[in-house]
């Protein structure tokens, strides 16, 4: 029975981890853009 | 001379001559494969019965690693001397270069296999219970499968960081059907428990498909560096 | 276009929640395997979604090989990555399902093995994209995608024959499926497809932004070198 919940939890853990990684990259890019605007 | 066979032959002859003089590739491959055989024989202490079951896998793992050593140096000489740039601007067909390299690698690895096989037979007391002659098509088709994709992926890996790691990383997943066929076919012949025919046909189809696509796409890769 | 995203996001969330309810409670309990069988409703749709994403990757790669369209390359990069994520889900849920049912963690089940090989091929694809120093990385990646696609039928047949020689448990339905189970399966697949679409969309926007920033940075560096700045 715990196997069932483990499987569902693992699924969403993987998806949320990926979404989190995307969000982190997005934030890093957002930080770089004002830098570029300044240089220009 | 701009015809495909003529240039292939010339390039191949040049590579073989260079290799014969230095014996770089063949020595390193040979020593590497020997090390693998010895280490494996420490890890397993099989009886003749068991060894027939596992020998297929062991032998092909050893040959695979040795083939990677050969494949990694495929383009090294060309890179060092800017030969690829010269090739790109010459009217010579790119496929001639690819075929010459692939056939050269095939010969090197085949020589290695021929030298290693007696060693394996000795270390594992191997005797084929099935039709032993079928080992020849398995070995030839299997080696070509590794070499044709390996030469192509070696060219793709030229402009990458960690070039030597990139080649096996790209080669192994794509080679899985061929590796499965080689190992299963060899085991089938050694144990005599099954027919290797399906695996031989699969290897032939694999070789046909990937030789064709490599020849079609090599020019694209050559110009992409 | 951008305003559609939150609306679609909320709809997908609702669909996913409903699908989860159906999978855990709505669907009938399987006779032989019991409750554990419900993993099926996450395992199978993830596999189908992953395969679909890889198919799109192949299509985008072919388009790139013919037209050298950078948008096609971005689509290829995105679908490869999201496809690997869904593949990972399949490879994790499969063993978790196999263990209580068959007592073993791994089995050379057709779907599971195919997923493993595709996972390996596409991880190597992603590594090629990351480690390539060539200016023509998209082209080389597209070629690898073609090789991978041609490999798939060969992988399929080799595993199929291997299984006839070495019989192995089948993860999933042995025979036909109860229509109510089909219903829940399809709902979950629809939910995951919508979710995958959203993830790809976000990833695509991120990819385009990343490329724009890199191009601008390259341009700035060039101009600086020329002494314009």
Q: What's the short story on this structure?
A:
Chain A is an all-alpha fold and 40 residues long. Chain A is built from one helix and no strands.
Characterize the overall form of chain B.
globular
Low-confidence stretches of chain B: none
Q: Radius of gyration of chain B in whole Å, from Cα? A: 18 Å
The main pleated sheet of chain B reads as: none
Q: What is the string of SSEs of chain B from the N terminus onward?
A: HHHHHHHHH
What would the average pLDDT of chain A be, to the nearest integer? 89
Oligomer: heterotrimer
What structural class do helix, strand and pairing data of chain B support?
mainly alpha
Q: Which shape of chain A, going by the Cα principal axes?
A: rod-shaped
Total DSSP helices of chain B: 9
Give the amount of beta strand of chain B, in percent: under 5%
Determine the N-to-C terminus distance of chain A: 60 Å
Number of domains of chain A: 1
Strand composition percent of chain A? under 5%
With helices defined by DSSP (H or I, 4 residues minimum), what is the helix count of chain A?
1
According to DSSP, the number of beta strands of chain A is: 0
């Amino acid at each position: 029975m715990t196997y069932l919940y483990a499987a569902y939890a693992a699924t969403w853990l993987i998806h949320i981890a990926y979404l989190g990684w995307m969000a982190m990259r997005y934030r890093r890019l957002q930080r770089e853009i004002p830098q570029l605007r300044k240089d220009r | 001379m701009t015809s495909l066979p003529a240039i292939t032959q010339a390039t191949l002859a040049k590579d073989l001559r260079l290799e014969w003089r230095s014996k770089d590739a063949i020595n390193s491959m040979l020593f590497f494969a020997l090390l693998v055989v010895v280490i494996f024989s420490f890890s397993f202490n099989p009886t003749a019965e068991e060894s027939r079951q596992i020998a297929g896998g062991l032998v092909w793992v050893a040959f695979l690693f040795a083939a990677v050593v050969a494949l990694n140096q495929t383009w090294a000489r060309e890179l060092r001397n800017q030969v690829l740039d010269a090739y790109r601007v010459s009217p010579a067909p790119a496929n001639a270069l690819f075929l010459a390299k692939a056939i050269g690698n095939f010969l090197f690895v085949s020589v290695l296999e021929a030298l290693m096989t007696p060693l394996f037979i000795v270390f594992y007391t191997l005797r084929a219970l099935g039709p032993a002659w079928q080992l020849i098509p398995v070995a030839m088709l299997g080696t070509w499968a590794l070499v044709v994709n390996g030469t192509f992926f070696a060219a793709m890996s030229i402009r990458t960081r960690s070039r030597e790691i990139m080649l096996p990383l790209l080669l192994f997943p794509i080679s899985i059907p061929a590796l499965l066929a080689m190992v299963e076919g060899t085991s089938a012949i050694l144990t005599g428990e099954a027919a290797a025919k399906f695996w031989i046909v699969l290897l032939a189809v694999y070789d046909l498909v990937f030789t064709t696509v490599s020849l079609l796409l090599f020019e694209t890769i050559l110009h992409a560096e | 276009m951008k305003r559609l995203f939150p609306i679609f996001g909320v709809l997908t969330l609702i669909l996913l929640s409903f699908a989860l309810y159906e999978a855990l409670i709505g669907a009938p309990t399987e006779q032989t395997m019991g409750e554990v069988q419900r993993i099926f409703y996450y395992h199978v749709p993830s596999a189908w979604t992953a395969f679909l994403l890889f198919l799109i990757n192949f299509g985008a790669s072919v388009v790139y090989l013919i037209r050298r369209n950078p948008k096609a390359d971005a689509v290829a990069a995105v679908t490869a990555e999201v496809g690997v994520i869904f593949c990972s889900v399949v490879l994790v849920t499969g063993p978790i399902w196999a263990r209580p049912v068959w007592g073993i963690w791994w089995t050379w089940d057709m779907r599971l093995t195919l997923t493993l090989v595709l996972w390996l091929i596409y991880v190597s694809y992603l590594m090629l994209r990351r480690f390539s120093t060539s200016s023509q990385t998209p082209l080389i990646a597209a070629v690898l995608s073609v090789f991978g696609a041609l490999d798939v039928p060969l992988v399929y047949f080799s595993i199929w024959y291997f299984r006839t020689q070495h019989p192995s448990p089948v993860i999933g339905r042995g025979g036909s499926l109860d229509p109510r189970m089909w219903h829940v399966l399809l709902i979950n697949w629809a939910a995951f497809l919508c979710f995958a679409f959203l993830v790809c969309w976000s990833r695509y926007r991120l990819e385009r932004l990343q490329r724009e920033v890199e191009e601008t940075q390259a341009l700035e560096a060039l101009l600086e070198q020329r002494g314009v700045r």
